[in-house]
Amino acid sequence: MEQTFVMVKPDGVKRGLIGPIITRFEQKGFVLAAIQLRSIDRALAERHYGELKEKPFFGELVQYLTSGPVCAMIWQGEHAVENARSIIGKTNPVEAAPGTIRGDFALDIAGNIVHGSDSLASAEREIELFFGGAVAASAPVHLVAGTVVQH
Ligand code: GDP
Ligand code: MG
What we know:
metal ion binding, NDK-like_dom, globular, alpha+beta, binds guanosine-5'-diphosphate, binds magnesium ion, 6 strands, 4-stranded antiparallel sheet, metal-binding, Nucleoside_diP_kinase_AS, Alpha-Beta Plaits
């Protein structure tokens, strides 16, 4: 079953939106395969958004991502990557349709509260970066000092 990487960004965590965002994914039919509340250091933020490093807003983006804890998740389901992008909505909340997460909860592109992988290859890369590889949704998973432990 396809998996994708989703992250509630620091502004989403600060605003108490982990619960509503998880609810959207559960209502859509996704299964939660792994979750971690964690900080991101500059090096991880730069790797995660490596393909954007030439963009004029890259410094601001890294600052944003490292400004507080994030909630990193792996969600599993049919067409997980495309379905997640569809319920997250367009990058710029001004353009994100009402009913999408960004359309309902965010105002500005510099604070669009949630990330979702944009392709299968990105999902695999990001899951590896944050969780050290795919995690089986049926297996009990917990975290010890930031490391995924599977039983
Ligand atoms: P996404 O896949 O929909 O998140 O969009 P992108 O991969 O194009 O951009 C990654 C993230 O960079 C976005 O979610 C925003 O947080 C941020 N971002 C994109 N464009 C801008 C911009 O013009 N200004 C600022 N400050 N941030 C931006
Ligand atoms: Mg992207």
